[in-house]
Amino acid sequence: MSQVYNIAVIDGDGTGPEVVREAVKALQAAARACGFGVNLARYDFGAERYLRTGEALPDSAVEEMRKHDAILLGAIGHPTVKPGILEKGILLRLRFELDQYINLRPVKLYPGAECPIKNKGPEHIDYVVVRENTGDLYTGVGGVSLKGTPHEVAMQTSVYNRFQVDRCLRYAFELARKRRKKNTLALCGKTNVLTYVYDLWERAFREMGDAEFGDIKREYYHVDATCMWMIKNPEWFDVIVTGNMFGDIITDLGAITQGGMGIAAGGNINPGGVSMFEPIGGSAPKYAGQNAINPLAAICAAGMLLDTLGRVEAAGKIEAAVIEVVATRLKSLAAGKMGYSTTEVGDMVAERVAGGCRAPQPEACGNPRP
Ligand code: IPM
Ligand code: MN
Predict the structure, then answer these.
(1) Which residues contact 30 (CB under 8 A, 6 or more apart)?
(2) What is the pTM of this model?
(3) Is the CB of 238 within 6 Å of ligand 1?
(4) What architecture is the 1-100+271-370 domain classified under in CATH?
(5) Is 87 near ligand 1, meaning CB less than 6 Å away?
(6) For 201-208, which contacts have Cβ atoms below 8 Å and span 24 or more sequence positions?
(7) Above 90 in pLDDT, residue 370?
(8) pLDDT tens digits, residue range 5-37?
(9) 136 lines ligand 1 (CB under 6 A)
């Protein structure tokens, strides 16, 4: 009997269901082509369910998710619900409770994708951001008092402990080693102002590097400078490691340098548990129902999912198909400007996956081998 993977599928809000549908097509085509099975379980978490039931995630959901081999997520967030409720109640809760402590975001420019940086091409933009995914300003530590008065006080605190920093750094060092590209790990911080939190990161970085990763070159950049170099000299980067908040910000910048939210995928990874994969661009509600959104980010997320499950060949087929479609078919990666509908783009990828693609690429969507 061939192996069957149990995948939880959360369509989510806005264009989530449209892109997930295409990602599932690619996933199934890859599984068929490589001789394994995928068993999908759908979950309707999102704005609609919240408005109907008053709860973002049912209490049983986290335990339910633990039973799967991986999770594929469309997007969370909708204008009908106040900002923060669904994001915290679904996305962040799953990230935290499933201890998906790595948010892996490859920044890779494929040939034919539009890059907004003058004189930069695919040979210059191919790195991975390792964003810590459980700490920092995202922990919710803080509070408000005297709300609504002229003396209102609001606080929200960046929180890290050594354990969180160490496990994230170790993952990033190991990834730099596995990529065998430039054998370089850059820490992105702000040691000149955040003299507690990024001092902790910086010391842990140095100590771990000296003790265990003598083969990996270390670099350090302040976050503001990181943004500048990501535009001016993106070819310097191989693996960047950073805290949750800076990682959130710099990966939107990275995404636009690889052609935009239509192509940018990420994985919320628990190396010893259940990981969750998503397009990083959000639910884009204004495009919902138009069959116009680009599904490639979700399709690349499905590729990362397979890669993390150890299905390197299947992941390679998806990436090869995406590369071919981007290079030879799409007019643009932007919603409504692709020259094809969401469904057509998904079909083109699935056909190529099924038709047998080239040998697996060493860096399918840029993520590490388990
Ligand atoms: C992301 C998103 C989320 C984040 C939001 C929706 C909570 O921006 O995945 O980058 O801030 O992590
Ligand atoms: Mn973000």
Answers:
(1) 302, 303, 306, 311, 314, 315, 317, 318, 353
(2) 0.95
(3) no
(4) 3-Layer(aba) Sandwich (3.40)
(5) yes
(6) 201/160, 201/165, 201/169, 201/243, 204/162, 204/165, 204/166, 204/169, 205/169, 205/241, 208/166, 208/169, 208/170, 208/173
(7) no
(8) 999 999 999 999 999 999 999 999 999 999 999
(9) no
CATH homologous superfamily of 116-257 equals: Isopropylmalate Dehydrogenase (3.40.718.10)
Measured by CA distance, the residue closest to atom 4 of ligand 1 is 248
Give the separation between CA 15 and CA 263, rounded to whole angstroms. 14
Contact between 74 and 43 under an 8 Å Cβ cutoff? The reply is no
What are phi and psi for residue 156, nearest 5 degrees? -145, 125
Residue type, 135: G
The 8-class DSSP code of residue 285 comes to: G
Indicate the domain borders of the chain: 1-100+271-370, 116-257
- By most ligand atoms within 8 Å of CB, the mutation choice from 92, 105, 130 for ligand 1 is 92
Cβ atoms of 61 and 91 within 8 Å: the answer is no
CA distance 273 to 267: 13
91 lines ligand 1 (CB under 6 A): yes
Ligand 1 proximity of 252 Cβ (cutoff 6 Å): no
280 Cβ closer than 6 Å to some ligand 1 atom: yes
Give residue for tokens 């995406």: 322
Cβ 181 vs Cβ 238: under 8 Å? yes
Ligand 1 midpoint to CA 309 (Å)? 24
Q: pLDDT of 81-100, one tens digit each?
A: 999 999 999 999 999 999 99
Q: For residue 287, how many other CB atoms are within 10 A of its CB?
A: 17
